[in-house]
């Protein structure tokens, strides 16, 4: 079942985050994920939102997501993401009627 990863980021060190971002695709493309959105100015239609960036990804299943997120390559570059931004990361299962 398809899973979606929703990431909400609050930048704390842009230089560190930019280092992560520069290396992201080299790692991401090795796995079966799809980057659906990476928006630094999403429209807030309801409520309040105190973050700076929204990222939406999909993976064929949770195993594919975990293979990426737990890979040594991603763990290495994610240090810069964690240094550069406070993140809320959600994993949501796709809908299967």
UniProtKB/TrEMBL annotation:
UniProt cross-references to InterPro entries, sorted A to Z: Dimeric_a/b-barrel (IPR011008), DUF1330 (IPR010753)
Superkingdom as given in the UniProt entry: Bacteria
Residue ranges constituting the DUF1330 domain according to the UniProt record: 2-94
PANTHER family referenced in this protein's UniProt entry, alphabetically: BLR0684 PROTEIN, PTHR41521
Protein name: DUF1330 domain-containing protein
Annotated source species: Bradyrhizobium uaiense
């Amino acid at each position: 079942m398809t899973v979606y990863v929703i990431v909400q980021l609050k930048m704390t060190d842009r230089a560190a985050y930019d280092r992560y971002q520069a290396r992201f695709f080299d790692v991401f493309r090795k796995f079966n994920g799809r980057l659906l959105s990476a928006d630094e100015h999403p429209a807030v239609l309801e409520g309040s939102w105190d973050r700076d960036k929204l990222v939406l990804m999909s993976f064929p299943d949770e195993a594919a997501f975990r293979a990426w997120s737990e890979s040594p390559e991603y763990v290495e570059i994610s240090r810069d993401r964690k240094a550069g931004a406070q993140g809320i990361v959600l994993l949501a299962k796709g809908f299967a009627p």
